[in-house]
Amino acid sequence: MTIPFGARLRSAMDERGPLCVGIDPHAALLDSWGLTDDIAGLERFTFTVVEALAGTVAVFKPQSAFFERFGSRGVAVLERAVSDLRAAGGLVVMDAKRGDIGSTMAAYAEAFLRKDSPLFSDALTVSPYLGYGSLKPAVDLARESGAGLFVLALTSNPEGSEVQRAVRTDDPAGRTIGATMLAHLAEENAGETPMGSFGAVVGATLGDLSSFDLDINGPLLAPGIGAQGATPADLPAVFGAAVRNVVPNVSRGVLRHGPDATALRDSALRYADEIRAAVGA
Ligand SMILES: O=C(O)c1cc(=O)[nH]c(=O)n1[C@@H]1O[C@H](COP(=O)(O)O)[C@@H](O)[C@H]1O
User: Fold this and answer.
1) Does ipTM come in above 0.90?
2) Which residues form ligand 1's pocket by a CB distance below 6 Å?
3) Distance of CA 46 to the CA centre of its chain
4) Using the 8-state DSSP alphabet, how is residue 245 labeled?
5) Are 247 and 59 in contact (CB under 8 A)?
6) CATH architecture assigned to 5-279
7) Euclidean distance between CA atoms 149 and 131, whole angstroms
8) DSSP labels for 58-78?
9) What does pTM read for this prediction?
10) By the 8 A CB rule, do 235 and 246 touch?
11) Orotidine 5'-phosphate decarboxylase domain spans which residues (predicted)?
């Protein structure tokens, strides 16, 4: 029987610490590594990160767009990276932020969450802004495959608040949209131990979130540390008691230390230590 994503993630967090390293091959990073902004540069960048960190870090989040921009050859690099990371015991959260009407959502889900798909990942980021219910095919397939989802709830970017903090006129409780997504996830994860597989994306940049119920019995993917200005020390104030379920993501903050493999590893280990110290893990 496949162990569900939430349980696998909890073990990985306990063993390797809760850090998620984002694999985001920005053109500017390729340039700073002395690489060309083409398929050869993409390949070198990606496998340098994979080889340096695959046995050390708990979770990896490749950003699909940076691979898609090179067409099918870029996607082939992504497929190999996913497979190498998973073979080395890392968990892969595919950051593709998919979201569509239910029948099309089913096809997106098959691309990333069907076990025999070339891009099968441990979890997928999804956008619920066609309505949470539109994600049902992805929720169902994730359950069947032992995979997980990370649903955009309160994103790290300043523009997110006009949507996510808007108050619903169709809700008798007058909740915000972000709070509604968190409530759906809490329902999805009810009764699961050690935690459920359906996570929320909640930015580490957002300051005090005590007006939101972050107790969803599932993981909270927290981007924003490093290049976007948040630090590991901010985590307890932002997440309160939910901090033990937080998976902080750092992309450029680690990647800028390449191409030297030791410098990449040292940076990831430093972030992992600072995060552990901040969250008391
Ligand atoms: O879903 C995400 O991963 C995500 C959500 C969010 O609210 N904010 C956010 O920055 N991200 C992603 O997290 C990564 C952050 O990268 P750095 O700012 O370089 O650490 C990028 O891949 C973003 O696409």
Assistant:
1) yes
2) 22, 24, 61, 63, 95, 125, 155-157, 201, 203, 223, 226-228, 249-253
3) 17
4) G
5) yes
6) Alpha-Beta Barrel (3.20)
7) 15
8) SEEEEBHHHHHTTHHHHHHHH
9) 0.98
10) yes
11) 18-267
HSE toward the beta carbon, residue 205, CA cutoff 13 A: 18
Domain boundary assignment for the chain = 5-279
Q: Is the dihedral of CA 191, 196, 198, 199 positive or negative?
A: positive
Centroid of ligand 1 to alpha carbon of 247 (angstroms):
12
Percent of the chain predicted with pLDDT > 70? 100
Confirm if 123 and 197 have CB atoms less than 8 A apart.
yes
Decide: helix, strand or coil at residue 121. Answer: coil
Q: Which pLDDT score, from 0 to 100, does residue 108 have?
A: 98
- pLDDT for 137-146, tens place per residue? 999 999 999 9
Q: With beta carbons less than 8 A apart as the criterion, state whether 222 and 212 touch.
A: no
Q: Which of 134, 129, 127 is nearest to 101 (CA)?
A: 134
Mutational pocket test of ligand 1: of 21, 23, 24, the residue with most ligand atoms within 8 Å of the beta carbon: 24
Mean pLDDT computed over 105-118: 98
pLDDT band at 280 (very low <50, low <70, confident <90, very high): confident
Lookup: tokens for 116: 């025999």
As a whole number of angstroms, the distance between CA 166 and CA 9 comes to 31
